[in-house]
Amino acid sequence: MPLYDLDAAVTRSINGHAGVNAAIDFLMIWVSAIGVPLLVVAVAGQWWRGSDRSHNRHVLVATGLSFLLGLAINQIILLFVHRIRPYDGGITHLLIDRSTDRSFPSDHATATFAIATAFLLHGMRRLGLWFLAAAVLVAISRVYIGTHYVSDVLGGAMTGIVGAILVRSLYREGTRVDRLITSML
User: Fold this and answer.
1) What is the gyration radius of the CA atoms in the chain, in angstroms?
2) Backbone dihedral region of 50: left (phi > 0), alpha (psi from -120 to 50 degrees) or beta?
3) What's the rounded Cα separation, in Å, for the pair 130 and 146?
4) pLDDT band at residue 185, thresholds of 50, 70 and 90?
5) CATH numbers and ranges of domains, the chain
6) How far apart are alpha carbons 53 and 49 in whole angstroms?
7) Could you give phi then psi for residue 98, rounded to 5 degrees?
């Protein structure tokens, strides 16, 4: 079975549950719509938390940079990949309004996986695992509501993870720039 056929089949199987249960549809639409903003607020709320504020603030800045870098990587990919949405290809039943941009990669998956990965890479395991669970739920919701193929959210997850890894390797804790940024507010 070619990869596209597998991708379409798995996407169809997840989206095939859409429209069956109004409560689950509502939940998935809600998760898809406010998942990223809720995670951003949850991250921002950590700014004043914890006994080791300088480390926490470093992680939060690194998380924001990971988020932005992941989305920037997506914009570069979109210059070369022009994948149509699965609902335009007759693969899925769409539960929300149509999107005007391309399908691959998923910005929602990128953003949420960048957040989770940044926390995990910086040793904040407990929060990182909560953010990872939320990222998986957001990614599934994007397929469930019919706006993405499974490979779109996997690709988005990868760009978020790559963004977090690059930031982890380039933005070092305790540097002059880090101390300046983390001492603000």
Assistant:
1) 18
2) left
3) 25
4) low
5) 3-182 (1.20.144.10)
6) 7
7) -65, 150
What is the model's pTM?
A: 0.92
Which spans in the chain are helix H? 3-15, 22-44, 53-80, 107-121, 125-144, 150-170, 176-182
Residue 44 C-alpha from the chain's centroid: 16
Listed residue (20, 23, 18) closest to 142, CA to CA = 18
**Spatial CA neighbour of 85 closest among 165, 142, 14, 18:** 142
160's tokens: 């978020």
Pair 112, 39: CB distance under 8 Å:
yes
Task: Name, in order, each residue with C-beta under 8 angstroms of 64's C-beta and a sequence gap of 6 or more.
Answer: 43
**Cα separation of 85 and 39, whole Å?**
25
173: buried, middle or exposed (CB in 10 Å: 19+, 13-18, 0-12)?
A: middle
Name the DSSP class of 83.
P
Per-residue pLDDT tens for 138-182?
999 999 999 999 999 999 999 999 999 999 999 998 888 888 888
**Treating both helix axes as pointing N-terminal to C-terminal, what angle do 22-44 and 107-121 enclose, rounded to 10 degrees?**
50
Q: Is 90 left (phi over 0), alpha (psi -120 to 50) or beta?
A: left
